Automatic annotation (TrEMBL):
Name of the protein: Uncharacterized protein
Transmembrane segments: 6-25, 46-65, 71-90
Organism for this UniProt entry: Cellulomonas oligotrophica
Keywords associated with the record: Membrane, Transmembrane, Transmembrane helix
Taxonomic classification: Bacteria, Bacillati, Actinomycetota, Actinomycetes, Micrococcales
Length: 91
């Protein structure tokens, strides 16, 4: 399979995960989260998958990994780190 095919498959998988997280939820519950922390806990995990789908989609359209793909993937990583900090570290 070509790189474009793999990027397209990755886009579809990440998109499905994003839709599931947006509609059903990701199963993460932090009862004491309030304010900005609650927003991050409730929505950042979905945003990670949306950003990954966009990164892979941009790569699929170009047929290769691009600067835009990289920026979106790094944004997904930063968002995921923020999500993890909000769930496990911040109180």
């Amino acid at each position: 399979m070509t790189a474009r095919t793999w990027f397209t498959v990755g886009t579809a998988v990440a998109g499905v995960v994003a839709v599931v997280f947006a509609t059903v939820g990701d199963g993460v519950v932090v009862d004491d989260a309030t304010g900005l922390r609650k927003v991050v806990v409730d929505h950042a995990h979905t945003l990670v998958w949306v950003l990954l789908a966009l990164a892979l989609g941009a790569a699929a359209v170009a047929g290769r990994w691009t600067a835009l793909s990289q920026v979106l993937a790094v944004a997904a990583g930063i968002t995921y780190g923020t999500f993890l900090l909000s769930v496990f570290v911040l109180r």
